[in-house]
Amino acid sequence: MSTILLVEDDVSFSEMLKRFLERHHHAVILSYTLEDAKLKVKESTFDLVFADLRLPDGDGISLLNHIKAKDASIPVVLMTGYAEVSTAVKAMKEGAFDYISKPFNPEEVLQVVKNALQKPSTEDKPTIQTPLVPSESSKLPTNLVKGISGASKVLYDHVNLVAPTDMSVLISGESGTGKEVVAKAIHLSSSRKQQPFIAVDCGAIPKEIAASEFFGHKKGSFTGAINDKKGHFEAANHGTLFLDEVGNLTYENQIQLLRALQERRIKPIGSNEEIEVDIRLLTATNEDLLNAVEQGDFREDLYHRLNEFSIKVPSLQERRDDLILYAEFFLDNANQQLNKSIIGFSPEVLKIFQTYSWPGNLRELSNVIKRATLLTNGELIQKEVLPQELSAPSKEAMTRSFSTKDNEKELIVKALQEVNNNKTKAAQLLNFSRKTLYNKLKEYNLD
Ligand SMILES: Nc1ncnc2c1ncn2[C@@H]1O[C@H](COP(=O)(O)OP(=O)(O)OP(=O)(O)O)[C@@H](O)[C@H]1O
C-alpha cells in the first residue's frame, strides 16, 4: 500500500479524493495548508504528494521546492484549475512529476498515480510507515459536497457570507438541486448550530391544519386535538426553521406566518398565552415566487420578509464540472448503505453521465447510482445497469449538454450566431438563464 499526502484546502473535495484513493488501496493523509504539509513531509515519508497549486498560505510550487530539497525522489503531482495550466507546466520544469487539471476524470487520477508510483527512484529511500491519523475534516459533516465548478463556488461563497447573520434567506432552484442541503449548511455554519433545525414541507401540510402545525394547539381546542401539541415555531425556538415549498402556502396561512414573523410571538390554537419565539427563517421554492407575487398568489410583504437575502442553487446542468465528484460521493454512500464495494464507473458510463441532461438534478443522480450499485456484481458500474432514458438521451439533451469547456464555448458561439447575437434568445436556446449566459460569456472572453 502506498501512502499519499493530499494537500488541498477545499475540505469536501479533498475528502472525496481521499475516499476515492482509499478505495483504490492507497493510504491518504490530508493537509489543508502549505505549512501543515511541510510539517507532515518533515515527520513522515510519502510515496507521492498531490498538491493544489493554490493554498491559503502559499502555493504548490513552494511545497514542490521544499519537498525536492528534502528528497528529490518523492513524486509531486500538482492539481490545477483551467486558468493555471501554464503555471503548472512551469512547475513541471521545476521538478513536478505531472499536473492534473480540475475537474478530474477518476480514470485520469488513477493513471497519474500509477505512473508516479512506478517511477524508478533515483535513490534508495527508507520507508517509514506513516500512521493513519484521523483527519481534522472527519469532524465536519460528511453529507455535503461543495463542488469545484464556478457556480458551486459562488453558491458556497454566498452560504458562507449569509450564514453568520440572522437574515432570512430565500433559497430557489429546480427540484432536487439541494436546497434543503444548502439550508442545513447555513444552519450548521451559524451561531444557532447547537439549536434545532426544523424542516417543514409546506406542500405536504393540508391547509386546514397548517396553523396547528406551525403554532401548535391545546388539548380539546378542536375535534381530534386529543393532546397538547407543540408547533414547528416552538420546536425551532432559538434555532432555524426551514420552510420548503413555501409557495404552496394558502393566502390565509401566509397572513398567519407574516404575523408570527413580525411579532416574533405565537399563540397555540386554543391557548390564551402567547409564546415568544426567536427563530431564523430559511425558505425554499422551486417556482418563481416573484411571478406568484405579480399574479397576486403570494403576498408581497411576506415575500420581502422571506427574501432578505436570496440564494439560487444551480441545476446540475449549470455545474457539470461537479458531476464526477457527486457521482463518486453518491457511490460511496450507496456502497455503505448496500454493503457493497464497487470501485467506480466504466468509461462508457462516465460519458453517458456527462451527456445526459439530469432534469431531476442531484436527486436523480443519487437515485440512478444507488439503483446501479444494487444491480452491479462486478467492480465497475456498467452501462447495462443504467435506466434506459440515460443511455438513449433525447437528441435535444445531447446537443444541449456540455461535456467539456471547449465544447461548451463552441456551443455558445454557435447559439449566438444562430440568433444574430440576441442574448435572450441564445440563453433560451442553450437552456441557460440570461445571467448564466452573461457569466459564461465573461468566463470565455466572448463579450
Ligand atoms: N451538496 C451536496 N452534497 C451531497 N449531497 C447533496 C448535496 N446537495 C444535494 N444533495 C443530495 O441531493 C438530493 C436532493 O437534495 P435536496 O433534497 O436538498 O434537494 P431540494 O432542492 O431541496 O429538492 P426539492 O426541491 O425536491 O425539495 C438529496 O439526496 C441530497 O442529499
TrEMBL record:
Classification via InterPro entries: AAA+_ATPase, AAA_lid_NorR, CheY-like_superfamily, Homeodomain-like_sf, HTH_Fis, P-loop_NTPase, Sig_transdc_resp-reg_receiver, Sigma_54_int
4-aspartylphosphate: modified positions: 52
Span of domain Sigma-54 factor interaction: 145-374
Lineage top rank: taxon: Bacteria
SUPFAM superfamilies from the UniProt entry: CheY-like, Homeodomain-like, P-loop containing nucleoside triphosphate hydrolases
PROSITE patterns to which the protein is assigned, alphabetical: RESPONSE_REGULATORY, SIGMA54_INTERACT_1, SIGMA54_INTERACT_3, SIGMA54_INTERACT_4
Nucleus found in the keyword field: no
GO biological process terms, semicolon-separated: phosphorelay signal transduction system; regulation of DNA-templated transcription
Tagged with keyword ATP-binding: yes
Keywords: ATP-binding, Nucleotide-binding, Phosphoprotein, Transcription, Transcription regulation, Two-component regulatory system
MF terms in GO: ATP binding; sequence-specific DNA binding
Domain Response regulatory: 3-117
PANTHER family attached to this UniProt entry: PROPIONATE CATABOLISM OPERON REGULATORY PROTEIN, TRANSCRIPTIONAL REGULATORY PROTEIN
Descriptive protein name: Sigma-54-dependent Fis family transcriptional regulator
Lineage: Bacteria, Pseudomonadati, Bacteroidota, Flavobacteriia, Flavobacteriales
